[in-house]
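Chain A, query sequence.
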Amino acid sequence: MKASWILVFIIAAASATVGYSETKKRFSLLEAFRAMAENTKKIFAPKASPVKTISLSKDYNIHNHSVIASGRLDMFFSGVLKGKGEKFLSEARKNNICPLFLAAIAMHESANGKSDFARYRNNVFGIYLKGKYHSFESVDECIEYSAKLLAGRIYSKNPTIVGVQKIYCPVGAKNDPKGVNKYWLNGVLDKMKMLWGETIYIVQA
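Chain A, predicted structure.
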C-alpha cells in the first residue's frame, strides 16, 4: 500500500515537469493505477453475510447467530456480569449458541449478576451439580462451562428455548421446592427482548 502511494506521488511530480501531452499520459497511467486499486478492493474485501429477521418466541432456535455487540450486552449487565459482554460473545460463537440466549439465561439465573450464588460462588447460570449449586473459580469459568453445556447432545433433539427449559429448568424439579422454575421460560424471553427486542437479526450461514 505504501509503495503504491509513493509511485502515485512520483507520477504526479513527474507530470508537473513535462508538457501537456506527457501530462495526459501520466494522468492516464494514474487513473489506471486507481482502477487497479479499486478492483483489488473488490476482490479481497470480505463478503458480508446475509441477514434475516426472526420474531422471538419460545420456539426460537438456540443456535441462531444473533447480531449483537459486546458493548450492548455490557449496557445491561450489572453486578459480576458487568464487563463480560466480550466473554459471552466469544463463548457463544465458539459453541454455536445464540449470544442473546446465553446472556439472557445468565441475567435471569443470577438476578443480573447480583444474586448470592453469583457473588460468592461465581455461579451465574444456576448450575446444580451433585446435589448442590456448584462453585466456580471465576465467572469466566462458569460462562465457559455453561456455553459448552448448552451446546451438548442433551439439548440437540429440541434446540429451542422451550426445549432447553424442559431439561435445564424443568417445572416440578426436586431442587425447586419454591416452584420458581415455572418463571424461567418467560423470564429468559423477557431478558432477550430487553437486550434487543421482539425482532431478532440473524446472520445466515
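Residues 20-44 form the longest helix (25 residues). The longest strand covers residues 51-55.
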